[in-house]
Amino acid sequence: MGRYIGGRVVSMLVTFLIIASLTFFLMKLLPGTPFNNQEKMSESQIQQMNEKYGLNDPVPVQYVTYMTNLFKGDLGVSFQQDGRSVTTIIGERIGPSAYLGFQSLLIGTIFGLLLGIIAALKHNTFLDYGSMIIAVLGISIPSFVIAGMMQYWVGVKWGMLPVAYWEGFEYTIMPTIAIAAAVTATIARFMRTEMLEVLGQDYITTAKAKGLTSTAVVIKHTIRNASIPIITIMGPMVVALMTGTLVIEQIFVIPGLGEKFVSSIMTNDFPIIMGTTLFFSILFIVVILVVDVLYGIVDPRIRLAGGK
Amino acid sequence: MEKILEVKDLHVSFDTFGGEVKAVRGVNLHLEKGETLAIVGESGSGKSVTSKAIMGLIPNPPGRIKEGEILFGGKDLAKMSEKELQSIRGSEISMIFQDPMTSLNPTMTVGKQIMEGLIKHQRLSKTEAKSRAIELLKLVGIPNPDTRVSQYPHQFSGGMRQRVVIAIALACNPRILIADEPTTALDVTIQAQILELLRDLQEKMGTSIIFITHDLGVVANIADRVAVMYAGKIVETGTVDEIFYNPQHPYTWGLLGSMPSLDTSEEELIAIPGSPPDLTDPPKGDAFAPRNPYAMKIDTELEPPLFKISDTHYAATWLLHEKAPKVEPPEAIKKRMKGMASSKPTMVTKDGERNG
Amino acid sequence: MANEKLLEIKNLKQHFKVGKSVVKAVDGLTFDIYKGETFGLVGESGCGKSTTGRTIIRLYDATDGEVIFDGENVHGKKNAKELKKFNRKMQMIFQDPYASLNPRMTVADIIAEGIDIHGLAKNKEERMARVHELLETVGLNKEHANRYPHEFSGGQRQRIGIARALAVDPEFIIADEPISALDVSIQAQVVNLMKKLQREKGLTYLFIAHDLSMVKYISDRIGVMYQGEIVELADSDELYADPLHPYTQSLLSAIPLPDPEYERSRTRKLYDSEDYAPKSGEKRVLREVKKGHWVACTEEEYEQFMATV
Amino acid sequence: GGGGNNNAGEGGNEGGNAEGGEGKSEQVLNLLESAEIPSMDTTQATDATSFNAMNQIFEGLYRLDENNKPVLGMAADEPKEEEKDGETVYTFTIRDDANWSDGTPVTANDFIFAWKKAMNPDSLSQYASMFGTAGIKNANAIITEGDPLYGKVDELGVKAVDDKTLEITVTQKVPYFKSLLTFATFYPQPKDFVEKQGDKYALETDTMLYNGPFVMSEWNHGDGWTFEKNPEYWDNETVSLEKVTYKIVKDVATGVNLYETGKVDRAGLSADFVDQYKGNEDFVTRLEPTMFFLRLNQKNEALANTNIRKALYLAYDREGLVNVLLNNGSVAAKYFVPKEFAFGPNGKDFREFAPDGFLADKGAEEAKAAWEKGLQEIGKDSVDLEFLTTDTELASKIAEYAKEQFQTKLEGLNVTINKQPWKQFLELETAGDFDISTGGWGPDYPDPMTFLYMFETGADYNRMNYTSEKYDKLVSGAKKETDLEKRWKMMQDAEKVLIEEDFAIVPTYQRGTASLMKPYVKNYFLHPFGADTSLKWVKIEGK
Amino acid sequence: MRQEQLPDLTDDMFQPADIDSSKNEEIAGESTGFWKDAWRRLRKNLGAIIGIVIIVVLSLLAIFGPMMNEYSYHEQDLMRAKLPAKVPGLENVGFLGLNGVDIRGVDQYEAKGVDEYFWFGTDEFGRDQWTRVWQGTRISLFIALAAAFIDFVIGVAYGGISAFYGGRVDNILQRIIEVLVGIPNLILIILFILIFEPGILSIILALAVTGWIGMARIVRGQVLKLKNQEFVLASRTLGASDGRVIGRHLIPNVLGQIIITTMFTIPNAIFFEAFLSFIGLGIRPPEASLGSIINNGFSSLQIYPHLVLYPSIVISLLMIAFNLVGDGLRDAFDPKLRK
Ligand SMILES: Nc1ncnc2c1ncn2[C@@H]1O[C@H](COP(=O)(O)OP(=O)(O)OP(=O)(O)O)[C@@H](O)[C@H]1O
Ligand SMILES: Nc1ncnc2c1ncn2[C@@H]1O[C@H](COP(=O)(O)OP(=O)(O)OP(=O)(O)O)[C@@H](O)[C@H]1O
Ligand SMILES: [Mg+2]
Ligand SMILES: [Mg+2]
């Protein structure tokens, strides 16, 4: 196992380097300069700013400088927020995003699993169709529409939950629901398919032949085996949740990373773009690794193969 | 002998895209204490469906028991509630399936899978169940049961997995063991081991076994009595000697004739021509008629009743009717028929009445 | 049976890399197949039977060794044209009647694939005529030509597979467990058909199976494989009458026969390759102990066998 | 301060009010901002959010009052004025009780330190040119590359006579001199403290010192910030508010919802919400001196024709735009120097000479005539134009509207909209790579010149290749003219040339903003330039 | 069998029957190919049929909807801006809300003195929402189909090559995918749109930059599985060229999976386009996609819900329909349900 992870880490590093380089050069293709209020700057001032941030150097030189600093753990400072280091900015933004992402993932997964299980157990009944309609709606309605509606009705009209801000648990409820809707939907559909697949397996018949109750069969034999493949879609989902919540972050005034990421692209804040991209890539690669390892832990068949 | 199970006029159908599949169409059979009943017949003839019906495991939908009784200990399994069935499954009647590779849950240790039934039916504690599981593994001949008990199925070879499946089935000393093609997926050598194991266990525990297979060699090896199924019906039933040495139904002839014995010389094997009938629309009369070289006109019109050949031997073919011309079974079959001069067959009605 | 060698296999090896380890699926096979005979290959699952067949027909490139067909080395460097010629002479019938037919093609297209590839028909009519002829040969009829595989039973599918192989008029057919997946009653259909075709067309078969009674019935000579090697090779009657290698003996003693009386008396011999490992560290090699009867044995054992014969 | 650009067009979310306690209202005001504070270093800040925050926690020599008049801040008195050799020396005395929040006094050196820092090429402020605008000696030369004085900040015409005395030497007296001094770039910085903090200065609340009415007590980057009353402020008795919170809210609907639930005291409105809140007692609109206009690129053959430009100028129906699309108090503009912004020597609004702008009574008819004439002159019967704009919602709305206006009224005209992100937009516009582009401009100081200098030949913002000797002469003349009446007249003439004669740009509207504000918020002052608001005088009453 | 059911058994009946041995091999019923069979299954799947009907109806509306009244998608008239929906005939069915009364209870048609009917209301420019929504549907569908098509071409080629040639080729191609996947696709897409001219084309290309990866993976998995199937081996032993193996055996067998994947790609593309619109990277106005219409209306969700409602319903219906059809096809193609 240790060696396996070791090997994976090496290949992760290579992947990471390639991603870092690719992003760097792509970013250099972005039009415009990173300076705020450019409209009021004269040509010479822009030149001076470029000089100051080393943007006048040839791109390869900038690249080498960046990569060298990267290995020292220095991601540079934001162009937009004077002098604040990229690591600090990511650091203070990651908390809410991570919390929200995690909570939505948790809630979405739980509900998704429930819906999927119900749909599969009540295959081709009204409950099945009901759950799947919910699931499809969850993917179909844009999350910002759900968010906007909730904010108005639940927050303003009924006054049940705070409209926005990030100040405590009750503030997380609406954004969580808005994000979790899609998660629930995706997981529910996946789970249903997997459940149906597992329910048709011979070992389920074996379990039934033992005289186990249907509940025991479902809980002990079906759900576990059906959930294992779900782990594989969790990886990309985690990252998507971290990056993809920007709309929700904006609507509910949550100081998260997704919003920062998009605004940094819009303002050509190169160090932040690089920083966040690299952060997300690392996150992604690590999550994938974790998922694979987890998969091996949950599925005994893979554990040994991986351990070789 | 004591009948511990009796199936009467069982009909099972499945509702599918193509229409109603009449998978089992009036099966009658019984099982006596301590005996092994082999059910043979080609693929799709309804062997598994019959056994699943006994276990109450016909998936519903699409399947349903349309008619018939399955009497076990005086009670009709076909009418039992799911709950009652659950208390019988695994403790009174258990089942082993064909494919050892897929009949075990890959993510649960074999020990746990054995223990489940024990905990449920015998209300053993976890530790008790575990030591019993180890005993069972030892019983089915798995070396190092102490370590094996906490391993996962993929760490076992095919033969060992089938042993585990058997251990699960035997965990609660069931009175009936239904083995649905338990050795088809295995190598001959392992098959032989499993068969020996089953025979041993039967001797020790007095279990009655319903053994489903299409390998006649296996039947000869393990069965006391044999039921031959074709297109959802039992077409011939008798003791193993009666079926092998005095077969009466042309389908049984075909089955026996299509297997070379070690001394079969150059002559052709008897192939049963054609393919089995479509059970959504079973043919009128004798379902075997279209593939039967001895078919008579009546076969295409009327379903043959069971004819009694001896107290234990019955066959459903018009060839046994007194008016039927005497037909010679094929050479290969004739060679088998040793000194079992057939007494005059009599026709049997559904409720067992005789008709001269 | 003429004693003309159609196929010579010399020290054939096929090793697969699986991750970092190597699976020696076939490890030094040597045997000949004569023109017009049926050579049976038996052995337990995973001993390398299929790999042998597939390597012979070049689905895999051999790791080592030679396969000489009609005097030509099959595994030498070949251009596409030569290979194509070879493909016409050697054909294969597969085990799984469900997996061996492309579910998206009609029976006619499946059967005619060889005809199309080798350009054996001048026009559509000729192609169809040939397909109909082949269908008849394997006991099916014209109407089946436009149907799809899933509409057929296992036995019918297997016969379609045979028709496909026959389409290019091969001399040699490798049948990899052609009946294992079939019903007993249907197995006979296929076996009878294969025998008939052999009689009519003088085909040569390599018949791979683990059902020993069927193998004995159909084969002239049988090779018993164990872990990638042949441990015994003899005429089929000879092999059954006088199995010398303990593995062969164990294999034979394990087969249940459709004869209750025989079954009641049959006792099984056990074989454990570790117990049987030669103590001296010597390797067992195939040696001819009787005419045409080869056994893998050490020098010492050879002496013993010779003495008993 | 802050330049209005196209991006700033949407209903801004500055706003405010306070929650009240029982009996006497609790002096807390909760406001929204639409962006983060990019910098709290007065020499580095460039944006409206920063300037607004700075105005509450820092103070220059002057600050703007309710009527946008400069009133004394750090300065104890109006300066002494001395003229010699065509230069004027102002001598300011700094208040005795002017202290930084750590208790140290604000000194003349703190001013000079900050100003020189702003002029220094190593830490050059984007607003360094303001010193030149103020007429301060050598300011322009110091920031002009190639000039012998380039980078020599010590040559700047400012001097600390002693701790509390500051001398400023100007080579040209400008009428808006004091107003400029209210601008953040002219704020002082605590020299010793700043030097001690180094790179960290003004990055967090504890790495800066305050000399304004409030101190920043909390700063959650990306989320919001909080001000608290500054006990060290010289005029802290005037300050009523104990606490002000700001939250960054980018979504207008969210802001309105927060307002509805009482979480904030002021919220900006977009056009849609105006329909809903018009007539509500909380509803307020305000006209800002920010102008929006279209640049017509004379590099384009068709647009080089005056009649074509005139046609475009006349074809645009500004009423629909301001009343329906914007719907926020914006005013249709056929002029370039905004209303209610600059007041002449006689105290009258600059606009009074042409209150409704130029050709105010002309419309579609005349547009068509001019169009046909123009087409004839260039010998074409159809014209394709590319309309460059940014990708914000409002900008694209306006572009859609303009396209439809032009196309339906001017036969043979085909307009293609090119929507670009802001950075890319600027890139293209600066390169002159457009036919029509949208522009916006807010004043840096309260004088028409802050608008008019833009379109001198070769000026940075003259991106549409407009050249007019007449215009150039008028503008440069006005820059030097010391007779204020005459100067005023010259500027009015210049505007007339720019628009009525040359149709160099198509002004569209003067921006208004609509917002909701709780009635219990009193004395909330808004400014047309520099910082948007002053909270010094705000009181919560009757909540 | 009951005795009385037995008629007289005459000797005659015991004569050998002439069984036509050729009938033995007869197969009843019509020949059903894979596609026919799948279609039969699909037809029985209510959800899929509903999905197909929705897609057909929406596509027809996307084509003909804009022509169904006299308004064009860009014609502005500020005098009739922001009118709620009003449909002749349905205006009297109160709960439908198609009577021109806004959420504050004011009949805007009366208030603004408008006599025409706008079936989906009008937007802030007074443009007919009906026309715009269908125009937008047209564009959204076009973008989605085009993106799906590109995904299809690249994905199938990439996955196919990777699996078919295997070994080192596969290894390298899979590494490339790993890297691509490692870059959050949002940044790739945004960069793409920024670098190229904004507009339909760059949105399509942007969606395709990473969109094909899913398809490539699925095709690769399928081909890997298929290429060792016995029927492929059979073809090889017959001497089939690579081209033949790919064209006749592999592609037809992965086609089902490909179609299913495409069915799910389309709604994803529609959705992603909407997302891009939301962050301001949509297409050039006055052209609009469903996403940009929703995005424009979103800010006035509380006041003019009709601006969001109708396009949202259409986009949701489209998504639901494609998902339903995808699910239906998956069931229809499921080999486990076939014999
Ligand atoms: N779940 C089901 N749905 C529809 N038809 C079914 C189902 N299960 C069984 N059948 C049908 O019932 C008939 C009998 O099947 P059964 O499994 O009993 O055959 P079998 O004799 O056990 O064959 P095999 O030797 O292949 O196991 C077959 O025609 C089969 O198609
Ligand atoms: N392509 C391959 N890659 C790796 N290993 C393989 C491959 N093909 C076969 N093997 C391995 O080679 C060994 C021999 O396999 P082969 O299929 O030839 O056995 P077999 O005798 O045909 O078995 P069976 O009776 O089960 O068909 C097995 O251990 C198998 O796992
Ligand atoms: Mg079965
Ligand atoms: Mg094999």
From TrEMBL, chain A:
Signal peptide: none
InterPro entries: BPD_transp_1_N (IPR045621), MetI-like (IPR000515), MetI-like_sf (IPR035906)
PROSITE patterns tied to this protein: ABC_TM1
Places the protein is found: Cell membrane
Pfam family, one: BPD_transp_1_N
Main location, first listed in the record: membrane
Keywords: Cell membrane, Membrane, Transmembrane, Transmembrane helix, Transport
Domain ABC transmembrane type-1: 94-295
Membrane-related topology note: Multi-pass membrane protein
Biological-process GO terms, alphabetical: transmembrane transport
UniProt name for this protein: ABC transporter permease
From TrEMBL, chain B:
Keyword Signal: no
Keywords for this protein: ATP-binding, Cell membrane, Membrane, Nucleotide-binding, Transport
Similarity comment text for this entry: Belongs to the ABC transporter superfamily.
InterPro entries: AAA+_ATPase, ABC_Ni/Peptide_Import, ABC_transporter-like_ATP-bd, ABC_transporter-like_CS, Oligopep_ABC_C, P-loop_NTPase
GO biological process annotation, one example: peptide transport
Molecular function, one GO term: ATP binding
Pfam family, one: ABC_tran
Membrane topology: Peripheral membrane protein
ABC transporter domain: residues covered: 5-256
Compartments in which it is found: Cell membrane
Protein name: ABC transporter ATP-binding protein
Lineage: Bacteria, Bacillati, Bacillota, Bacilli, Bacillales
Xref: CDD domains: ABC_NikE_OppD_transporters
PANTHER family noted in UniProt: DIPEPTIDE TRANSPORT ATP-BINDING PROTEIN DPPD (PTHR43297:SF2), OLIGOPEPTIDE TRANSPORT ATP-BINDING PROTEIN APPD (PTHR43297)
Region spans: Disordered: 335-356
Database matches in Gene3D superfamilies: P-loop containing nucleotide triphosphate hydrolases
NCBIfam families in the cross-refs: oligo_HPY
SMART domains to which the protein is assigned, alphabetical: AAA (SM00382)
GO cellular component terms given for this protein: plasma membrane
From TrEMBL, chain C:
Gene3D superfamilies per the UniProt record, alphabetical: P-loop containing nucleotide triphosphate hydrolases (3.40.50.300)
Single biological process term from Gene Ontology: peptide transport
MF annotations from Gene Ontology: ATP binding; ATP hydrolysis activity
Pfam family, any one: oligo_HPY
ABC transporter domain location: 7-252
CDD domains, per database record: ABC_NikE_OppD_transporters
Keywords, sorted A to Z: ATP-binding, Nucleotide-binding, Transport
Keyword ATP-binding: yes
Top-level taxon in the UniProt lineage: Bacteria
Family classification: Belongs to the ABC transporter superfamily.
PANTHER family given in the database record: D,D-DIPEPTIDE TRANSPORT ATP-BINDING PROTEIN DDPF-RELATED, TRANSPORT ATP-BINDING PROTEIN
Designated name of the protein: ATP-binding cassette domain-containing protein
Organism taxonomic ancestry: Bacteria, Bacillati, Bacillota, Bacilli, Bacillales
From TrEMBL, chain E:
CDD domains hit by this protein: TM_PBP2
InterPro entries named in the record: BP-dependent_transpt_permease, MetI-like, MetI-like_sf, OppC_N
GO cellular component: plasma membrane
Broad class of where this protein is predominantly found: membrane
Subcellular location(s) of the protein: Cell membrane
Topology term for the membrane: Multi-pass membrane protein
GO biological process, one term: protein transport
Domain spans labelled ABC transmembrane type-1: 137-326
Keywords, alphabetical: Cell membrane, Membrane, Peptide transport, Protein transport, Transmembrane, Transmembrane helix, Transport
PROSITE patterns: ABC_TM1 (PS50928)
TM helices/strands, residue ranges: 46-68, 139-164, 176-194, 200-219, 258-283, 303-326
Matches recorded under NCBIfam families: Opp3C
Family in the record: Belongs to the binding-protein-dependent transport system permease family. OppBC subfamily.
Name of the protein described by the UniProt record: ABC transporter permease
